[in-house]
Structures are given as C-alpha cells and as structure tokens.
Amino acid sequence: MNILARLNGLTRSTAFGMMVGLACSIATPAHAQNDKMVPVAVPDQPNAIVLGTGNLPDNAAPESWHRQYEKLFARNVTVATLTPFLPDPAKANGTAVVVAPGGGFRTLSMENEGWDVARALADRGVAAFVLKYRLVPTPEGMPAFEKSMADMFAGVASAPRPPMTMESAVPQLAPQIADSRAAFALIRKRAGEWHVNPDRIGMVGFSAGAMLTLVTALAGEDAKPAFIGTIYGPLAAVKVPADAPPIFVALAADDPLFAGKGMGLIESWTAAKRPAEFHLYEQGGHGFGMYPKETTSTGWFDAFVKWMGMHGMLKPAQ
C-alpha cells in the first residue's frame, strides 16, 4: 500500500491550512511595485499539454488570470497542464526539470516562478516543464477574490501555527501530487522525443510549489525526482528516506513567512546522510523568483545551476 493510501484516512489537520496561507507568495512579494491585481484574458498556451488527471468537481468558476507585479498569475485552475520549454538541440544535455510555481495553492505565479525559470533552464541546455497544477477554488470576481485572500491571511495571523508534517500535507495535496506524478510519467513516456534521460529528471518549486516538490520527492513514490530544489519554501523537519534525492534550498533571512523558524529541513536531510545545499540570503523577502533585484538573492538561479553541474546534471547524457 502506498503512502497516499495509508494516509488517506487521517483527520484533516489545521496545520495544512495554515501552511497554505503562509505559502501564498502574492501576499508578501519581493517586487513591491504594481501590486494591484488587474484581470487579463486567459493567454494562449499553445504548447500546454493536458495531463489527464481530471477536473476538480467542486470548482464552478472558470480559470482566470491576472497581472500583478508586472507578471501573470493564474487561478481557479481545474485542469492540470504541462508546458515544455526545450533547449536548442546543440545545447541539450539530457537533464530535465519540472518547474512548480507558487501561490498558496490558490494562484500560480506562472511567469516569475514558471515560464521565466523554464526559459533560463532551457538556455543552459536543460529541458524544463512548467507544471500548471490544480488549485483550491476561489471566488470568480476579483473583488471577492481579494477579500477571500485578505480574510485568509487575517485568520492565519491570528491563529496558532502548528508545524507542517507529511502526514497532514499529503492527504490535502492529493490532486496536486497526482498532477506532479503525471508530469513525471509524461516526461518519461516522451523522453526519446524530448531528448531527456529518464533518470535525470528533477524538480524545483517556489513557496507552495516548494511544498509540492517536497511531497513529490518524499511521498510521490513513482515520481522519484533525481534532484530537487525548494526556493523560499518551509524549512520544517521531515522524515527523509535513505534514497532521498539531493536537495538545494534557498531562502532569504528576511522572508516574513519561513525565515527564523529553524532549519529542520536541512538538518533532516543531513542527518539522513543525503546531499543538501542551503543558501540563506541576507535580503530578498518572499517571492523573489526571477525578478531582477539588487540583493544577492537574485543569484539563487546561478547557484542552483552550478549545483546541478556539481552533481553531473549538465554533462551530456550518454
């Protein structure tokens, strides 16, 4: 019996609800200008591949998009998709990365934490795949959506915050884990077409996407990422199996959501004698992603790519 089946009967914990609220990157962005949410038409996504994990039946609102901090966000996603960003064949090295944007499982920062990351990876010879995973329903209209988010954060601020555990997170994230697993399955199925080594598929996630990346690696038994990166995600301690993948973690010391709460995640990985690299930047806040900033947190991407290279992931696949 897999871990999802074992945990399916657990009581729904308030811990996950708190962490979802904390993981919503739109609340405390690093890029403070143009923070007003402006609705936009759903953009064309001609290369997006439907993953076939089904619709979320409890969301009647259509998928909608808005612009904030000069970048595009999606919400009310009920059908998961995967969008490939393939490198120039002359640069391709056979490594692939699933990119999981953040947004508190209520929105997805599709540009700053998705497409921009994928394009940068493809430029380094890495095949990148942006995962648009299914989301918690939100009100259709923008004013009602904004109010719902304000109410959520007010509740988070006033309530105690129990620590996240895999036992509390996994049942709550069942749809998103299914989407992540389907992404890995699709990439492996089409590995020959996309010139990807099936044993060199990693995953990087941001905020809520970092949480999804963690549970994909620790509870998504058939996904088995070759390596993972969690960018401004939670640092709570987890149970790390003996075959856990190498992990790269980046966080700003002034992150209002996850900084200053210990480094249990790093300690868990190193205690299990699994490779771990941790970058704690002095400044950067939460949600810096690929935004150009004067803080050293902007260097996380170059550090991540160098780390991948240290693990042999940038060498041409044999």
TrEMBL record:
TM regions (residue ranges): none
Source organism, top-level taxon: Bacteria
All copies of domain Dienelactone hydrolase, residue ranges: 182-289
Key words, A-Z: Hydrolase, Signal
A single GO molecular function term of this UniProt record: hydrolase activity
Pfam hit, one: DLH
Cleaved signal peptide residues: 1-32
InterPro entries: AB_hydrolase_fold, Dienelactn_hydro, GDXG_lipolytic_enzyme
PANTHER family documented for this protein: AB HYDROLASE SUPERFAMILY PROTEIN C4A8.06C (PTHR48081), PEPTIDASE S9 PROLYL OLIGOPEPTIDASE CATALYTIC DOMAIN-CONTAINING PROTEIN (PTHR48081:SF6)
Protein name according to UniProt: Alpha/beta hydrolase
Organism, scientific name: Sphingomonas daechungensis
